[in-house]
Amino acid sequence: MDAKLVVRKALENGLVVPAFNIPHPPMLKPIVQAVVDEDSVAMIQVARLEWEKFESVSLEHIAGEYGKYAVEGHTLLHLDHVPVIDEDHLEVDYLPLIQRAIAAGYQSVMVDGSRLDLAGNIAATRAVADIAHAAGIPVEAELGAVMGHETSQQSIPYEEIFARKLGFTEVDDAVRFAKESGCDWLSVAVGSVHGAIADNLLDKKKPAAKLDVERIAQLREALDMPLVLHGGSGIEHDYITRGIAAGIAKINVGTELRQPYERAMREKNDVEYAREAVYTRCRELIRNFLHTAGDAGTLG
To answer: Which of 2, 31, 228, 231 is most buried as measured by Cβ atoms within 10 A of its Cβ?
Structure first.
């Protein structure tokens, strides 16, 4: 499958491609099985913080695990969140990571320059796009400040952030960004929340998030580009449905599957028991929350 084509098909058909994060390698097998058993299409993805802060080892390790279980017509391999400035506010040597992902067989990559100013984000994304497009794969970028990861952002109540649209993606900025950066998909800040990575917050339920559906529709109209929603876990169900209809064509899901795995491992320290928990929850998400069961016929 061609990742760029799959996500474009999702946009044109009012569908969405789930992208499931792999912070723990044993999660990969049951997630793929759930996707296949629901006749869905999904991305298997890993972010830099998942080998820096969790147990994914490296992007090459996840690519190797993916190669054992991938099913053509159902799964794609995506490199999530390679930050230019990371969640600890440190500079990242990001271009070599993109090059390693291409060499390892990733079918799409994501660079996150959202902690830079607009010009810096454009320049960083352009550098990645040049490399990725030369290899024939699409690039996802991020514009705006998706809440989460940094515990300092917990100091402002969610309702206040949403009401004031703090950090939300601005349409005028997005138009310039899309034109100059060379990105193929744009992750937008419209109310969702990244999963917390601080030790004291890892197993906490995420706040019930909302989406600014009107802003999504405005971005969709202005850009004619697939939009991506990060922090898909914890969003009120009605907003997910409306967000997809408005232009969200890819949605990242991490916490909803990471937490069942980690809870199961604490209960029994049994990988197969934990895998079963992930499998069951993933099928529920596909069927009842994302409504992507049976989409393989359209997107595959």
So the answer is: 31
Q: What is the pLDDT of residues 192-202, one digit of tens each?
A: 886 554 444 45
Given a cut of 50, is residue 109 above it in pLDDT?
Answer: yes
Longest CA–CA span in the chain (Å) reads: 51
Which helix (H) or strand (E) covers residue 47, if one does? strand 42-47
247: which residues sit within 8 A by CB, 6+ positions away? 11, 216, 217, 219, 220, 226, 227
* Nearest alpha-carbon partner for 178 in 244, 233, 247, 243: 247
CA distance 95 to 128: 7
Residues constituting the chain: 300
Q: What amino acid occupies position 194?
A: H
How do strand 185-188 and strand 227-229 relate by DSSP bridges?
Answer: parallel
Q: What share of the chain in percent tops pLDDT 90?
A: 80
